[in-house]
Amino acid sequence: MHFLHRALNENTALASAVAALSDVIDSNALKLGLLLDLNPLWLAAYRAQEAGLNVVVPMEAIEWSHMWMQPGGMYLGDDVPDLSRTFDFVDWLTERYFGRSTKQFQPYLLRIVARPLRDPDELTRHREERQALLTAAREAQIPTLVETRAPPRLLAAAGDRILSNGVLGTLGGFLHDNITGDEFAVTCGHVVSQGIVSDAHGNAIGKCNKIAAPHPLPTGVRCHAACGSVNELDLALVPVPQRGANTVNAISQNIYNGDIVEMNGAVSGRRRYQVGAAVIDHEIGGSCWSRLFQIRAIIPATILPVAVYMAITPPPQNGDSGSWLTRNTSEWSGMVIAADQFHGYALAATTVVSQGNKKFGTDLSL
């Protein structure tokens, strides 16, 4: 589980503040998603203190703010952050940038994701909705940004490792059912339909009958955490007579901003990414999603533009759905399901297992 999802579960004041903003924007025609991230101003102060530096009001905090405000913020490193820690100068900077400060929510930043407006006519038609998102961001209890991005897409396309009725995807790994002793190959539910699943060469892997594919949003319903149509699982378990070898031997119980994870996608190959924000809700591929987390290019604190690193490490591509994310070479952290032009989106491994067990009545393990 992403540690910000855990914080949301355990911190009732945080959950209430997030829900209040969600209620304000849930019917907005331009709203795509709501993300919970670390406040980059707080994170910079935290990292400075952990490095043994005196935490005062550094001018660099203002001069480098353009980099800190990028989606995903700064690299956190290997530390488990103490979200109860606060800094006086972060209050000062937060008030300078956001017009308000509160130590109660100092470590947090919310990101409202808005649909792009492609032409002047769209801008005219949706001017009020756009202004409403900006107003909601300014009035939210937690510092909030509005970001405009193209809608993410589910990653299933030609050129991949496994095939089911013409739809291709990646076989991420293998899970064992401790109740029945069955072995399963694992991929995304939106990749596999009922029937025989084959590898890219046409060789049959197995016949799948345990599928949790995303259900679409009903007509006229906007995606938000309480809309009643939220997806928390995208999973297909393909029975196999003998499991293959996993590259992991443990499941990451907690996932943190800045964690470095590796994906082995059938289209993209091996790529290393950095964990970003936790998804509160997001419309993806005509469905509403919650409990995902973002992955993005690793962006160190250098003077090079962020675009350089994003060009070097683009997000997952069509056909990478089902790829497992590994941390420290041996831990399974998540499964890739979608991407936009900057980020990938993944289900936490703990969510795959717990929601899979709930859906199928299994007791899954590596």
Question: Any overview of this molecule?
Answer:
With 366 residues, the protein is an alpha+beta fold. It has three domains: 3-149, no CATH class; 155-240, no CATH class; 250-350, Trypsin-like serine proteases (Thrombin, subunit H), CATH 2.40.10.10. It is built from ten helices and 22 strands. It has helices at 3-10, 12-25, 40-50, 59-63, 65-68, 88-98, 120-125, 127-139, 306-312, 349-360; strands at residues 31-38, 108-114, 144-148, 153-154, 162-164, 167-169, 173-177, 183-187, 195-199, 204-208, 210-212, 230-231, 235-240, 250-251, 260-265, 269-284, 287-289, 292-296, 324-327, 331-339, 344-348, 364-365. A hairpin with a 4-residue loop joins strand 9 (195-199) and strand 10 (204-208). It is globular, with a radius of gyration of 21 Å. It starts with a helix and ends with a strand. Mean pLDDT is 84; it is low at 58-77.
SSE layout and pairings?
Layout: H1 3-10, H2 12-25, E1 31-38, H3 40-50, H4 59-63, H5 65-68, H6 88-98, E2 108-114, H7 120-125, H8 127-139, E3 144-148, E4 153-154, E5 162-164, E6 167-169, E7 173-177, E8 183-187, E9 195-199, E10 204-208, E11 210-212, E12 230-231, E13 235-240, E14 250-251, E15 260-265, E16 269-284, E17 287-289, E18 292-296, H9 306-312, E19 324-327, E20 331-339, E21 344-348, H10 349-360, E22 364-365
Parallel strand pairs: 2-3, 12-17, 14-20
Antiparallel strand pairs: 1-2, 1-16, 4-20, 5-6, 5-9, 7-8, 7-22, 8-13, 9-10, 11-13, 15-16, 15-19, 16-17, 16-18, 18-21, 19-20, 20-21
